[in-house]
Specification:
This protein is an all-alpha fold and 77 residues long. The chain has one domain. Helix content is 79%, strand content 0%. Helix 1 packs across helix 3 and helix 3 packs across helix 4. The N and C termini lie far apart (38 Å).
Length: 77
């Protein structure tokens, strides 16, 4: 996976609403992120498979970051 795709992926994680990331099951989370990434940067099959594996291996980190953003948001109630 090239650095451009990696940066774009983590940018998507940071800009997606934390509640959305937390409310999706693992499969839906992976599908949503790949879908958003593909909409911005078309991926070949091999890149899509690599991104899929990468996101699945980082799902706990993605959820932890979302939880942290939600918990420390100035808009959290």
């Amino acid at each position: 996976m090239n650095i451009s795709i990696l940066r774009q992926l983590w940018s998507l994680v940071e800009t997606t609403q934390p509640s959305t990331l937390l409310n999706l099951d693992d499969e839906s989370l992976v599908e949503r992120l790949i879908g958003q990434l593909t909409a911005e940067h078309p991926l070949c099959l091999q890149e899509a498979q690599t991104v899929d594996v990468y996101i699945r291996s980082r799902t706990p980190l993605i959820r932890e970051l979302a939880q942290h953003r939600l918990q420390f948001s100035p808009y959290a109630v």
